[in-house]
Amino acid sequence: MVIHVPKNYRHFIESNDETWDAQKSIVDSLEKFHPRKIELFLPNEYYGLDLIVKKFIDQDQKAPLKFGLPHGVELGDATFGNVYGFRTNLSTLTYNNAIGLRNIIFHKVRGRRILAEHPFLILIDMMTSLGLLANKKKRNATLFFPAHRDSTHDFINKNYDEEICMRLVLLRPKEGEIDISLPLLDIELGRHQIYEDFGFNVVTSGHRNDGKFLSRFANLVTSYSQIASTEIGSHMIYTAALGCAPVFWDFGMPSVQQADTDQSIADPYLIDPTMNLLFQPGKRLDISHSRSLLGSNGSPIRRDFWHYLQESSIRRDRYSFIELEGNTKKLTLPQSIRRPIVKIIKSGFTINSSKK
Questions:
Q1: Which of 100, 173, 184, 249 supports an S-S bond with 207, CB 3.0-4.6 Å?
Q2: Which letter does DSSP use for residue 34 in this model?
Q3: Please, are residues 221 and 198 in contact by the beta-carbon 8 Å criterion?
Q4: What is the pLDDT of residues 139-159, one digit of tens each?
C-alpha cells in the first residue's frame, strides 16, 4: 500500500515505494545534486539536516539556521571526520556531551557548544507519525556498509573493495544474500561495478546534498533482516536508533577513518575508547544506547527547545564573525548589514550626472 505523505513533507521525506523505485537504475534514476548554499554553515545542508529542523520549527526553508549542526555522530577526537562541526563562530550543537565538551576544550572551539538531540531523531518521529516505518516487509538479506570513499580521498589499499568482496563471498553460505550500500559519490566513481561483478546487488541512499538522503536511508535499513558493517561510523548509530540492531563484522582490515587514507595517516581520527567498545566483532548496537548517543534523554523532542536555540542564535548574529575556510578566513556580516548590501548588488546602481 502506498502511504500518502503530505505535500509539505515531500521535499525531504521519501516513501518506501519511492525509495525502491529509485534503486532500479542507481546511476540514472538518482539526480545530480548541488549545494543549496542557503546555510551560513554549509555542512548544515548535508543529508537535509537543516530541512528537518526547519520543518520541525515551522521556519522558512530559505532562511538559514543560526547554529551549526555537526553532520555526524561524535565518536572521538575532532581533528578529523567531524571537524566540520567545529569550524565556525556560530553556536554549534553536540549530541554526545562527554566527547563534545572535551573537543571544545581541547581544540579551543569558538562559539558556544550546546547539548541537543540529533535531527535524525526528529525525522524518525516524523516518519513514525506518518506511518512510514510501520509494518514493513523485511527482505531476507543483509545490507552491508563498506567504508565510503569520495572525490576528496582515496584508499591507501587500492584493492580495498575487491578484498571486501572476497570476504563477503565466504560469508554467503552462512549469512545468505548480501546487498551493498554505497553513497552516490562512490557510485559516481564506479565502485558499484566492483561489487556487481562479484554478484552483489548495490543500493544507495543517494547524494549528501539530497534533502531526502536520511529518509531514504531509514527506508533502506528498515527493509532488511540484518544490517552489518566493517566500519566504525555514524551509519551504525543511526541504524541502531531505528531499532535494527546492526552487527559489526571484523575483517581484520583497518578502519578507513583511522588508518587507510593519506589524510587519516597524516591526521589520525582517534575513536574514543568508550565508543570503541561498542564496535567489537559480532556485537550488536541496541536502540536505547544509540538514541542516548544521539542526545535523546528519553523524553519527546521539544519544539520549544529548538525555537530557543534559533532565537538565541539570532541574537548572536547581530555581530559579525570570522569563519575558517581552508587556509583562508571568511568574514560573515550580521543579517542587518548583509541583506541591504546583497539587495544593492543584485539590483545594481547607476550614477546619474548632468551638465550645468
A1: 184
A2: -
A3: no
A4: 999 999 998 876 666 777 788
Q: Enumerate residues 6+ apart whose C-beta is below 8 A from 328.
A: none
Between strands 321-325 and 328-332, the pairing is antiparallel
Please answer whether residues 22 and 216 qualify as being in contact, where contact means their C-beta atoms are separated by less than 8 angstroms. yes
Q: Distance between CA 221 and CA 216 in Å, rounded?
A: 9
Which is nearest to 82 in space by CA: 220, 261, 270, 307?
270
Element (H, E) at 202: strand 201-203
Boundaries of CATH 3.40.50 in the chain? 7-27+136-293
> How many CB atoms within 10 Å of residue 8?
10
DSSP character string of 147-196: PP-BTTB--SSTTHHHHHHHHHHHHHHHH--EEEE--HHHHHTTHHHHHH
- Cα of first residue to Cα of last residue in the chain, in angstroms, is 78
pTM of the full structure: 0.82
Give the span between the Cα atoms of 263 and 104, in whole angstroms: 22
Q: Which one-letter DSSP state was computed for residue 23? A: T
| Residue range 7-27+136-293, CATH number | 3.40.50
Cβ contacts of 37 within 8 Å, gap of 6 or more:
45
Kindly report, residue by residue over 190-212, the tens digit of the pLDDT. Answer: 889 999 999 999 999 988 898 99
What are the φ and ψ backbone dihedral angles of 331, each rounded to 5 degrees? -90, 125
- Three cell numbers at 107? 581544540
Give the Cα separation of 180 and 335 in Å (integer): 44
- Pairwise CA distance, residues 8 & 30, whole Å: 21
CB atoms within 10 A of CB 77: 20
For the residues of 91-133, what is the DSSP string, one character each?
A: EEEESSHHHHHHHHHHTT--S-EEE---HHHHHHHHHHHTTSS
As a whole number of angstroms, the distance between CA 101 and CA 108 comes to 10
